[in-house]
Specification:
Blueprint (H helix, E strand, L loop, with lengths): L1 E6 L3 H12 L4 E7 L2 H11 L3 E5 L7 H10 L5 E6 L2 H13 L3 E5 L12 H24 L3 H8 L10 E7 L3 H4 L13 E7 L6 H11 L3 E4 L10 E4 L5 E6 L5 E6 L10 H12 L3 E5 L8 H9 L3 E5 L8 H8 L5 E3 L1 H13 L1
Parallel strand pairs: 1-2, 1-3, 3-4, 4-5, 6-7, 6-12, 7-9, 8-9, 12-13, 13-14
Antiparallel strand pairs: 10-11
Length: 350
């Protein structure tokens, strides 16, 4: 039985979250808190398996409370935040400070639409308590970071044919992508295309934080943009990221609403589009995430002569997308998250 402590200043939200969580027979809510000070006290007393944490609370906000809980290693924390620009910025700050993941309130700070994210919340609670949060944190602390940095600095400009690196990531991605992109050198002879499943309103804050941390130029994919090496083009929420050759022979971005897909943007749509333009010069990368978005596309990239790199179960917070890719034969290289940057550099330079 997973024991959860709920922190939210709204009585309605506390009641709603309790109902959603206890709809699963494997979860029980052991307490609730209405502000940051209250949740820290109750966390120390109740020793829950997980805390759902609101961001905006009186007396002490969720970010401050999170830092106490993380420093005392009480339990994993999932942030439950409003889907606003301000909410997005604070949420990514929370992930950097040690929160396991987040779930957005679809209707604002006090949401009547939480049922639409009920399955996501229950899934992330089970994933966090099932070992994903603690296991990856422990292994990242022991990773061979000096070797990663040394290998990733190797320049790939010796191969003059520009390559395209198509990257897909989902659950756990907003935290784990920092183990990859910041280690890619600016002078790499490749353009990067990244699809991360997340709410549309979170895209701008996500891209800004990535840009501040990376040597690559990280930008939102915008229609008509000419593709250049050393850039990472990130798909924004609500539109599929595609690339096409225009009449002048330049490769440019095209944004579309179709095909219909569970995820928009979709990893599969992006990868198939990149493959159609770059062929065997494509490097496909699949990392942590639920489901199978991108798995078939990775197989097509490999069959076309491109390179494919898949995160191993050793480090994946959720092994759905990587696991399905491996099962379908789409994985040429399987590596933990802390080795993926160096594998990308090697694949681009070969």
């Amino acid at each position: 039985m997973i024991r959860v402590l709920i922190a939210d200043d709204s009585a309605l939200m506390r009641k709603t979250l309790k109902r959603i969580l206890e709809s699963d027979s494997g979860i029980t809510v052991v307490g609730s808190a209405r502000d940051g000070e209250d949740v820290v006290v109750k966390a120390r007393e109740l020793k829950p398996d997980l805390i759902t944490m609101d961001v905006n609370m009186p007396k002490q906000d969720g970010i401050t409370a999170l830092q106490y809980i993380v420093s005392e290693k009480i339990c994993p924390v999932i942030m439950v935040s409003s889907l606003t620009q301000e909410g997005a910025q604070t949420t990514f700050e929370a992930l950097e400070l040690g929160a396991f993941d987040f779930v957005g309130k679809p209707g604002g700070t006090v949401s009547s639409d939480m049922q639409t994210v009920a399955d996501e919340l229950v899934f992330k609670v089970k994933t966090a308590v099932g070992g994903g949060g603690r296991r990856v944190t422990e292994r990242l602390a022991r990773k061979p970071s000096t070797a990663l940095s040394r290998r990733a600095r190797v320049s790939s400009t010796g191969n003059r044919v520009m390559k395209a690196v198509a990257m897909g990531i989902s659950t756990g991605g907003p935290k784990m992508i920092y183990e990859v992109l910041p280690h890619i050198p600016r002078d790499i002879n490749a353009a990067f295309f990244l699809v991360q499943h997340m709410p549309a309103n979170f895209s701008a804050a996500y891209i800004k934080r990535l840009s501040d941390s990376c040597q690559l130029k990280v930008v939102e994919a915008r229609a008509g943009t000419k593709i250049e090496p050393g850039y990472c083009y990130v798909g924004g929420g609500g539109r599929h990221l595609n690339v096409v050759k225009n009449s002048g022979g330049d490769v440019v971005i095209r944004l579309t609403n179709r095909p219909e897909h569970l995820f928009v943007p979709s990893v599969s749509v992006m990868m198939d589009s990149v493959l159609s333009v770059y062929g065997k010069q494509t490097v496909g990368v699949i990392m942590t995430g639920m489901g199978n978005d991108g798995a078939d596309s990775m197989l097509r990239i490999r069959q076309a002569g491109g390179a494919t790199i898949v995160e191993s179960e050793e480090s994946a917070i959720v092994f759905g997308m990587p696991g399905d890719t491996i099962k379908r034969g789409g994985a040429e290289i399987i590596a933990p998250i802390w080795d993926i940057a160096s594998e990308i550099v090697r694949a681009v330079g070969r």
